[in-house]
Backbone:
């Protein structure tokens, strides 16, 4: 009797499972292309890179195990430490100004007529579709010491020409400007979308209470957009610290390494070093830095402070 | 009926999934440019080899194209496929090809071959090129092509990397001697003091090296000129830059910078003559190759251009202020067709001198051949008489120039960074030298340089 009951229950479970998991095979099959591609292009290279970071390898001779030497070399290299610090400085130079400008721009877009808003949206999005290499070249022309537009404008006000990308004091800022310009489009559009989503009743109620633009912005718009701000903060941070093409094309990391951002530093080592161990170790360490900061911000996002 | 539809749908979905996977993977395996041509053989029994060379000046690029074409026409067993790579893309393209095991069979190589040989990247030329041909390489070029009695590279040319050019019109306008360049740094600074008031806006007295990387490779001769040695002791055990001579050299550049004799942002790269050609500078420091650019791109300036050795330190004692750069051809150690690559190299560089004459003539006699027979053939060319600067380069500058350093690049870069820091006022000479000293010390330790020092 008992055995029969158990058997029946098992059979029932099997039927249910068959019903529940009847698409399992198909699901695996459909996932296969992506899993295989990720395996080949992400998982395996990551594992292999971790393996190679403990070796001296020049592509021609067999890799030689050197223990943690590459990591010690990277961590004790003042240039690597400086380059990470510079990455954070670049984030400070680009992300906050971009968020503020995009916010102001989005506020403008939602307050004008629909037709004019479209014109504004299209014009702010144009830089996003321009290749960063082209943008770099355009900005190099603008920054040209002799004959560049910027110095020509300064000359009108009798200001001496400035070596924008030749002077270590100005170079990083000069690279940050096109970075903000390129990133403004998508940031602004995301903010516009977030603003449009805020129920108009809030504003109507506030208006009836006599609230002005500042009050509406501080007490309604900004709190309602908190999640969007945090999303833009994270993506902006990751994109800025990984910025590579702008300094590569505009300054090649100079003058005096003042624009050598982390990825360019790693790239230069990969390009110049005979052995690749150092560059791989540096890349993995950058991955750790990026991962830690992103994890911290994500923790912040998931914290209770954000529950409305 | 319902079951049938479901089954059909499932089959279709499965097929689609499979096709997508296969399609994506097949897409990934497609051929890439620069890939070595399979086993290099085709049905007609011809061997195809890949040859990569950088973009140089227009006459050089034309010679490279021509020599490949003529070699391919001269025989029917080997086909050389040549690819011109922009100079600034060279390093990453080559590195990517090496990483993928698809480096070209034969390619151009600049600078020291020491690191590449240590890493096992270069093929022993003695195995594929006739010994008598290798023996033809003149002594001054041997140090860049052989290590420990084994040849790994065949030089095409030698050229002075630091030469002073001047615009005779601009100098005479300021009352400065146009026949001879300034002999010492003091003379140069005095000339600039005279020239500066005569310049229009946007014009400068001189355009020298101005960034760390260019300083690193182009001022090794100047370091030797000032100090009598370069940045490492002979045994490669310690840095050798914490001395008055290095401080003096840096202070000279700082003076050019502070007095506004040079632009605060380079108007053109060190290796190119655009700023000089556009008459934006009275003096230009570059390699001897710049003369061929003037010849091809700014012919009206050719007769108005003066050329001479770079100014000396006041205590130079006749030491040179330039290194002798070079471009060599090397065969990749992993090449499956080293024999064919060797034949191409032998025919082009080590064969009939007439194959090389156009190269040296069209580059305005600004480079020095590395074989006596080629030097003689070039000297016999009619145009040689019309190129008075060629004797300045060949007789005054090249003979006592020192070869490029064989120590690692990071050592040179530490010095270059110090020079730029001091020049731009970003660091005091003491601090900059201290930083460079520490950086070189780190290279010595991490790369165990004493064990790699050249044997006397």
Residues:
């Amino acid at each position: 009797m008992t055995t029969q009951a158990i058997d029946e229950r098992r059979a029932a479970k099997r039927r249910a499972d068959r019903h529940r998991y009847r698409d399992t095979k198909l699901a695996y099959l459909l996932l296969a292309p992506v899993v295989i591609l990720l395996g080949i292009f992400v998982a395996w290279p990551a594992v292999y890179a971790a393996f190679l970071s403990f070796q001296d390898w020049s592509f021609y001779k067999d890799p030689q195990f050197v223990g943690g030497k590459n990591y010690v070399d990277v961590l004790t290299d003042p240039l690597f430490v400086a380059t990470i610090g510079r990455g954070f400085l670049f984030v400070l130079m680009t992300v906050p100004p971009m968020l503020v400008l995009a916010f102001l721009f989005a506020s403008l877009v939602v307050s004008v007529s629909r037709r004019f808003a479209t014109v504004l949206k299209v014009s702010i999005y144009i830089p996003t579709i321009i290749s960063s290499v082209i943008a770099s070249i355009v900005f190099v022309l603008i920054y040209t010491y002799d004959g560049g537009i910027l110095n020509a404008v300064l000359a009108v006000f009798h200001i001496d020409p400035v070596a924008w990308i030749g002077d270590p004091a100005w170079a990083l800022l000069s690279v940050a400007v096109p970075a903000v310009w390129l990133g403004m489009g998508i940031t602004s559009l995301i903010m516009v979308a977030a603003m449009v989503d805020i129920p108009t009743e809030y504003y109507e109620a506030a208006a009836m209470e006599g609230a002005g633009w500042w009050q509406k912005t501080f007490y309604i718009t900004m709190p309602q957009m908190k999640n969007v701000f945090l999303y833009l903060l994270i993506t902006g941070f990751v994109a800025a610290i990984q910025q590579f093409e702008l300094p590569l094309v505009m300054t090649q990391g100079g003058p005096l390494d003042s624009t050598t951002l982390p990825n360019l530093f790693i790239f230069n080592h990969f390009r110049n070093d005979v052995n690749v161990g150092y560059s791989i170790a540096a890349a993995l360490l950058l991955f750790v830095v990026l991962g830690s900061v992103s994890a911290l911000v994500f923790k912040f996002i998931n914290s209770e402070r954000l529950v409305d | 009926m319902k079951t049938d539809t479901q089954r059909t749908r499932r089959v279709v979905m499965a097929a689609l999934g499979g096709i997508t996977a296969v399609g994506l993977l097949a897409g990934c395996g497609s051929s890439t440019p620069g890939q070595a041509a399979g086993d290099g053989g085709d049905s007609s029994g011809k061997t195809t080899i890949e040859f990569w060379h950088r973009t140089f000046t227009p006459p050089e690029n034309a010679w490279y194209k021509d020599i490949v074409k003529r070699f391919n026409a001269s025989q029917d067993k080997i086909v050389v496929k040549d690819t011109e790579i922009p100079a600034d893309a060279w390093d990453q393209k080559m590195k990517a090809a090496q990483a993928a095991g698809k480096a070209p069979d034969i390619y151009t190589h600049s600078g020291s071959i020491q690191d590449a040989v240590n890493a096992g990247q270069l093929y022993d030329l003695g195995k594929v090129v006739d010994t008598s041909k290798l023996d033809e390489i003149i002594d001054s070029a041997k140090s860049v092509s052989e290590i420990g009695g084994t040849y790994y590279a065949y030089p095409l040319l030698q050229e002075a990397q630091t030469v002073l050019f001047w615009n005779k019109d601009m100098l005479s306008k300021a009352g400065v001697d146009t026949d001879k360049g300034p002999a010492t740094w003091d003379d140069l600074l005095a000339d600039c003091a005279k020239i500066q008031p005569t310049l229009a806006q946007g014009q400068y007295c001189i355009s020298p090296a101005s960034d760390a990387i260019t300083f690193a490779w182009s001022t090794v001769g100047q370091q030797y000129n000032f100090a009598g040695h370069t940045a490492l002791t002979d045994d490669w055990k310690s840095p050798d830059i914490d001395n008055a001579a290095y401080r003096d050299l840096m202070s000279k550049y700082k003076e050019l910078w502070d007095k506004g004799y040079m632009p605060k942002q380079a108007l053109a790269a060190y290796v190119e003559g655009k700023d000089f050609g556009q008459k934006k500078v009275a003096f230009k420091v570059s390699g001897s190759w710049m003369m061929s650019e003037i010849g091809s791109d700014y012919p009206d300036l050719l007769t108005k251009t003066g050329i001479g050795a770079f100014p000396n330190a006041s205590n130079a004692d006749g030491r040179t202020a330039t290194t002798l750069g070079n471009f060599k051809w090397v065969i990749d150690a992993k090449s499956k067709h080293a024999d064919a690559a060797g034949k191409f190299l032998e025919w082009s560089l080590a064969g009939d001198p007439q194959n090389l004459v156009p190269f040296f003539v069209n580059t305005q006699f600004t480079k020095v051949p590395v074989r006596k027979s080629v030097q003689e053939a070039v000297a016999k060319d009619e145009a040689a008489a019309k190129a008075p600067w060629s004797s300045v380069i060949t007789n005054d500058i090249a003979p006592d120039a020192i070869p490029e350093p064989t120590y690692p690049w990071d050592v040179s870069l530490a010095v270059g960074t110090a020079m730029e820091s001091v020049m731009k006022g970003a660091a005091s000479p003491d601090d900059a030298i201290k930083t460079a000293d520490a950086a070189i010390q780190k290279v010595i330790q991490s790369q165990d340089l004493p064990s790699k020092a050249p044997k006397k």
Chain B touches chain A at residues 10, 13-14, 17-18, 20-21, 24-25, 28, 91-92, 95, 98-99, 101, 115-116, 118-121, 202, 210-213, 263-267, 280, 333-334, 409, 417, 420-421, 424, 426, 442, 446 (CB under 8 Å). The mean pLDDT of chain B is 87. Residues 2-28 of chain B form the longest helix (27 residues).
